[in-house]
Amino acid sequence: MMTGVHQARGEILLEGRPVQPIYFTQEVSDLSSSHVMAVETLLRFLDADGIVHHFTRITDTPEALELDPVLRPLFSAAKMAAARALFRHGYKYVGFNISLAHLADLDWVRDAEAMCAQVQREFPGHGVVFEILEHEQPDGAAQEALDLAFDQLRALGATFAIDDFGKLGSSVLRLCRLQPEYVKFDRSLVEVIAQSDFSHSMVKAIVAQCQQHGISVIAEGVETAAMSRLWEGLNVTLQQGYHFDRPRRRP
C-alpha cells in the first residue's frame, strides 16, 4: 500500500508491527459559557509497546488508510467508540478530521451516515462535526458530489467545519464553495491581525460576515491569554489551543 505500511487480516501493520487507531482529544472552549460543549478528536496510532505514532509517521496521506476497504471498518468502529465515550463524558459535539477524498468516496459516506444515524439514536441532541483538512478546490463535477454528501450527512444531524482557514489553500473561495457551519481560523492570523489596522479590519470583517450568515468562527492555536483576548476582541468566543487544553488520550 505504501512504504512501511501493510495490512493483514484487517490489521494495520507499521514496519511489520501491528498498530491500532486511537483518538486523542482537545476541547473547544466557549468563553460565553462556563461549560465546554465541543471536543475535536485527533487520530493517532498505538503499537504493542504503548508508543503513540502520529499519522505522518505512517503516511503523508492518512486518508489512504481510512479509505482502504479492509481497514475502513476498523476506523469506523474506533470513531463510534470515541464518540460514544465523549458524549457520555458530557460533550455535545465531537469533531473528526476528514479530507475531501473522504466525501468523494461513496462507501466512506455510507459508513459516516451509519455512524451519524447511530449517534442520533443513542444520543439525541448531540452531533458529529466533520472538519475538512484538504486544501484542493473541487471542480464542477466534484462539487456536485460534495454537495450530495453534505446533504446526506446533514440530514442525519452532521455539521461541517473548514480547518486552518487563512492558511495555504484554505481561502475565502473555499469558504464560499463549501459553506460550512463552522470555520476554524488558523493561528497564523494572529500575526496578521497585529501587523496593521488594515489587517485587523479585514479579519474582523470576515469574522462578522461569517457570523452574520450563521457560520460560527473558532480560533485555533490559542496558546496565551493575550491571544485569547485578541480573538475575544473580535467577537470570537469559541477558542481552541494549549491555553485551554492540551491533546490527551481519553480512557
Tell me, rounded to a whole number, the average pLDDT: 87
- When the domains are counted, the total is 1
The CATH superfamily label reads EAL domain
What's the alpha carbon Rg, rounded to whole Å?
A: 18 Å
Uncertain runs with pLDDT below 50, 5 residues or more?
none
| Beta strand % | 25-35%
Largest sheet: 8 strands, mixed, barrel
H/E series: EEEEEHHEHHEHEHEHHEHEE
CATH architecture assignment name = Alpha-Beta Barrel
The number of helices is: 9
Structural class: alpha/beta
Helix content: 25-40%
Structure keywords:
eight-stranded mixed barrel, EAL_dom, 9 helices, EAL domain-containing protein, TIM Barrel, EAL_sf, 251 residues, alpha/beta, Cyclic-di-GMP_PDE-like
